[in-house]
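This part of the workshop introduces the protein records we will be handling. An example says more than a description, so a record of this kind follows:
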Amino acid sequence: AGVAHEINNPVTFIYGNLTPASQYIEGLLYLLTLYQQHYPQPAAEIQAEREAIDIDFLVEDLPKILSSMKMGANRIREIVLSLRNFSRLDEAEIKPVDIHEGLDNTLLILQSRFKGKPGQPEIQLIKEYGPLPKVECYAGQINQVFMNILSNAIDALEEAKGERRRARGENSSSLPIPSCPLPWIRIRTEVGKISSSGLPSGNQDWVTIRIADNGPGMPQTVKERLFDPFFTTKPVGQGTGLGLSISYQIVVEKHGGRLWCESAPGQGTEFFIEIPIFGHRA
């Protein structure tokens, strides 16, 4: 939150000055147009400089540059706001929280990882948000759970693409993979707990957040150790094995909820997060 505040101050200064700067430049460009209308045959030196800087292109492109700068500054402001909302470090007590706002802030931070790259299609995001009441929880901690699970889902989808390439003996990342299903992540929210049949139980005192992907899935041996501290299937240096273990502590111990996973090889993975609506004091 402190870092976000330090970033936000200079960005606000830049963003606030872009509008008057655009107005000043618009006035100067209009003045330039008047000069061209009233003095169509300038001195040779002016004409040479006009051609050197390509004045017609400059007049057309400068407003576009300013507009893109304003969009970029606004984007930074949105990310900073999401970081502040995501961390919520100033909220040490349990209080009513909008779960959908926490999910959306997390997705905004991860937005760049959903975008396509050469040889890798964009990850499709499917949001199936049901009507939820505000939930009494530690907002920053629950957002961290969303971040850990969504990051793992993206990692799994990216790794699946790499494994398919290695299996086909392809080294170039620019080559498309034929017959490869488009990757997706689905987030579904609903009131109620999940019964043994996999359907909502009708218990109105709980909310369930389900995060699924169509990645490679995992065998039972991996699933059994998924929440063990320091357990990871990622290469050395690419994972600590603590993300899901910490998530389990947050959901189960801090909030009195449930966190589990359903997965099988070739069948994708789905995480279930259940939290009591009216809070739990650990």
